[in-house]
Specification:
- The complex is a heterodimer of chains A (166) and B (649).
- By secondary structure, chain A is mainly α.
- In chain B, helix 11 crosses helix 12, helix 15 packs antiparallel against helix 18 and helix 16 crosses helix 18.
- The chains are: A mainly alpha (166), B alpha+beta (649).
- At the A-B interface, helix 1, helix 3, strand 1, helix 4 and helix 5 of A face helix 8, strand 5, helix 9, strand 6 and helix 10 of B.
């Protein structure tokens, strides 16, 4: 009898562990592991390697795996997004803004940061003019990020408009 | 013959017949192709083949590097497994045939729909051209459009080695990961490219995942992604700090590395977690850049595992590393920012991020603008963090994030110094992962000498420099004892794995702490003697850190014991354990712990144990451990004391 109880406990533990694992893994299947499609805020990469960690999640960390096909992508393009009208076509810039819009917004609000520096690189703002550029963007934050539905093309165009004003 | 079929057949062990098939196919193709090659081409081809043989090019080191050949049996074999990577049917095992097939392929006509071998294998071609003084005018024309586009886009100037450190709550990631960053002429490193070698999988079961990863069931591919994606993955989502080691590769060397990376595009090798892993495979890229350094050989043969920090040490010893930069994760940034704020301000940040207080109302508070800025900065980070963990919906996130930033934008720019987080000790500066220990002890009025060896990686008692505090992974920990009185040598314990993750609770993060260990151990059984049992011992609980007590924890745990000496051959216990780890100065570490387990299933008994352990660091790679413990199991009391000298290696 006791042996039976032990076996039952062990199998319960195992089922528990595996089901935990499935719960953890559900949202990491190929579709969602990829970038959420979208061109606005909140479009960050998700992997849901959340902190409510289990041993099994930790096991996953053993193999540095990536889900699905990895691109050797030089540029993945932003064709699904509206394109900026006021800035010369620049895939690199558009892609960067789509992928980093939240961090960019945060840096613009603070007036400095690494994402903002990279953005200025791509906008080809000369180093000596960046302090002024950052200051203008910060002062006009609400004009750049006009609403929570703002998309990449708006942000780039708004930046061009704002930075041209005195 | 497509690749899938090839793989299938190979799995069923019909390798030879496939090779035979390929040989016949190659022969037929050569017959068909023969008329296309002019007499002039044939003469030049023969000339090149002749000089290659004369120079014994297929025996040269750079050829080994480019095709990943390593000694195997009496010959050499490539570690790459993808048939697409080889031009000769037996190229994987025949460096000479592969070289000749490569030379022959240079004479192929350029077809519109596929890359010419000269472009596909551009590092091989560049090397051959240099070594054989190939006159390109005498080869059929070929334009490497795709490669040239990639080259222009990546614009390689310099390179860095990237090491994302341990995931704080997942010690298995201690084995970590390394990638190579290729820097361009952009000032911002975020705009660089990251070259990554990783297993590709669609499995979601953790056990399957680990098993397949360890035993080579996954295919590893190289990939090339914008560096900002990698930063977002490790730093924002996985809570992993990153270390960036600047390499002193010249522009020419980085370009050569990129050419080799191009050859490995869409090519797989079987992925082995322990040795043929990401860190090992990246070494080939460094060798392709600078063949005078010898990195891959250092890890083949003697050792059957490759740990990223070891590869960093090896690369450093080769003189490739010229600087190191620390990139704190978002979680580290949150804790750092909070540490410079009053408790009341932290509370306001949390309230704003929780939607309980409007960002606008922060602006109206009667405090200094700098403090308001700090509050809203922290709120924004917390919101991003919560959203990335899916603790809040996208709608809620957006409704709070933008107004927070909007309010923040009225509060000026922080001093750059306030963002500078002091870096901890770099990973390669910590103790080495192996450990040898030796020393005397006394148990139950019998003296002994203990000798132990651990394959890897870090124990909670080991000095924390270069490691994450509270994260233990011991792989293969073997201990033997010689008891003087009984004149007997015996196995004390053999732990295959022993993981503890103590991840402290704080205002912002509420992680679960957990442990698991399994292996052979000695335990007092009903006859009052110690016997060898097999143990599986998982547990979970919480940890907390205070300046006075150090890192303390409490866990509920299960202990399964198996032995034919136990009544019914097994025993399952449940109970609780608790303890504290406290650092005193730079060299001392003290651990006090207690455990009480009730074995209610199988051989019923109780077990209680308390121990005090202290570790003294002598040098980075040596130290002393003194352990005193007392336990009561099956109504028998036993005490033990031992002093071990540790050498990390």
């Amino acid at each position: 009898m006791k042996k039976f109880v032990a076996v039952a406990v062990m199998s319960l533990l195992l089922v528990f562990a595996v089901s935990l694992d499935f719960a953890a893994a559900k949202s990491t299947t190929s579709g969602e592991a990829k970038r959420n499609t979208g061109c606005g805020l909140g479009t960050m990469l998700f992997k849901n390697k959340a902190d409510n960690s289990t041993i099994l999640q930790s096991l996953q960390a053993t193999t540095n795996a990536t889900f699905g096909n990895q691109t050797f992508g030089i540029t993945s393009g932003t064709s699904e997004c509206e394109q900026p009208a006021k800035f010369a076509k620049n895939d690199r810039l558009n892609e960067f803004v789509v992928a980093n819009m939240d961090n960019l917004a945060k840096d613009i609000a603070r007036g400095r940061g690494e994402t903002l520096d990279a953005f200025a690189d791509l906008m080809q703002i000369p180093v000596e003019k960046r302090a002024e550029f950052y200051q203008k963007l910060q002062a006009n934050f609400a004009k750049v990020f006009t609403s929570e539905n703002v998309v990449m093309a708006n942000v780039v165009d708004n930046v061009v408009t704002v930075s041209a004003t005195n | 013959m497509d690749v899938k079929k090839f793989v299938l057949i190979r799995v069923y062990g019909a390798q030879c017949s496939v090779y035979l098939f390929f040989s016949i196919l190659a022969f037929l193709v050569s017959l068909l192709a023969a008329p296309a090659v002019s007499a002039e081409d044939t003469a030049y081809l023969d000339e090149l083949l002749g000089s290659a043989r004369e120079m014994r090019l297929s025996g040269e080191r750079y050829w080994d590097i480019l095709v990943h050949y390593k000694p195997s049996g009496s010959g050499r074999k490539s570690l790459v497994d993808d048939p697409k990577f080889f031009l000769a049917p037996d190229g994987k095992k025949n460096p000479e045939a592969e070289l000749e097939a490569t030379i022959k392929s240079l004479f192929q006509e350029d077809k519109a729909d596929e890359e010419h071998p000269r472009c596909r294998f551009i590092a091989r071609y560049t090397w051959l051209k240099e070594r054989l003084n190939i006159d390109e005018a005498r080869l059929p024309p070929a334009t490497c459009t795709k490669f040239n586009e990639a080259l222009a886009s990546i614009n390689p100037k310099s390179a860095a080695l990237i090491f994302p450190a341990t995931h704080i709550n997942s010690p298995a990631s201690m084995f970590g990961h390394t990638l190579i960053r290729i820097d361009s002429s952009y000032r911002s490193e975020l705009l660089s490219h990251a070259v990554n070698y990783a297993a590709v999988t669609t499995d979601s079961n953790g056990f399957l995942y680990a098993f397949k990863g360890i035993f080579g069931f996954y295919h590893g591919y190289y990939s090339n992604l914008p560096y900002y994606e990698k930063v977002s993955e490790y730093s924002d989502l996985e809570r992993r700090d990153m270390w960036e080691y600047k390499l002193n590769l010249s522009e020419e060397e980085v370009r050569r590395m990129l050419m080799h990376i191009w050859e490995l595009k869409d090519i797989y090798s079987d992925y082995y977690f322990f040795d043929e892993n990401c860190s090992y495979n990246l070494l080939f890229l460094l060798e392709a850049a600078r063949p005078s350094v010898n990195l891959t050989d250092r890890f083949s043969g003697v050792r059957f595992w490759v740990i990223p920090t070891d590869t960093i040490r090896a690369i450093k010893e080769s003189g490739l590393i010229v600087g190191v930069k620390y990139r704190p994760s978002q979680a580290t940034r949150i804790l750092f920012k909070a540490s410079h704020m009053a408790g009341a301000s932290q509370k306001v940040s949390i309230e704003v991020a929780g939607g309980k207080k409007s960002p606008q109302s922060v602006l109206e508070m009667g405090i200094a603008p700098e403090e308001k800025a700090k509050i809203l900065d922290l709120s924004a980070e917390l919101l991003q963090y919560k959203y990335s963990r899916k603790q809040i919906s996208k709608d809620d996130y957006l409704k709070l994030f933008l107004p927070t930033l909007n309010a923040r934008s009225t509060l000026g720019t922080p001093d750059p110094a306030s963002d500078a987080i002091p870096p901890p000790v770099a990973p390669e500066k910590g103790h080495l992962p192996g450990k040898f220990s030796f020393g005397p002890g006394y148990r139950d009025d019998s003296a002994f000498m203990e000798i132990g060896w651990r394959a890897a990686y870090h124990d909670l008692l080991d000095p924390d420099d270069g490691y994450i505090e509270g994260a233990q992974v011991n792989f293969f920990d073997l201990r033997g004892r010689y008891y003087f009185k009984e004149d007997s040598l015996r196995l004390e314990s053999l732990r295959f794995i022993d993981i503890v993750s103590l991840s402290p609770w704080n205002t912002f993060f509420k992680p679960v702490s957990w442990k698991v260990n399994t292996g052979f151990d000695r335990k007092i059984l009903s006859d009052g003697e110690q016997h060898l049992i097999y143990r599986v011992n998982p547990g979970g609980g919480f940890a907390y850190k205070t300046p006075f007590l150090g890192l303390s924890y409490i866990m509920l745990e299960t202990d399964v014991n198996l032995s034919d000496r136990l009544k019914h051959d097994y025993s399952v216990g449940f109970g609780v354990s608790a303890g504290v780890f406290k650092n005193i100065g730079d060299s001392w570490k003290i651990n006090l712990s207690a455990q009480s387990l009730y074995y209610e299933i199988g051989d019923e008994h109780r077990s209680m144990k308390a121990s005090l352990a202290t570790n003294y660091k002598i040098t980075t790679d040596s130290g002393l451990t003194l352990t005193v413990s007392r336990e009561k199991t099956f109504d028998y009391y036993q005490s033990e004391m031992k002093l071990l000298w540790n050498l990390y290696l």
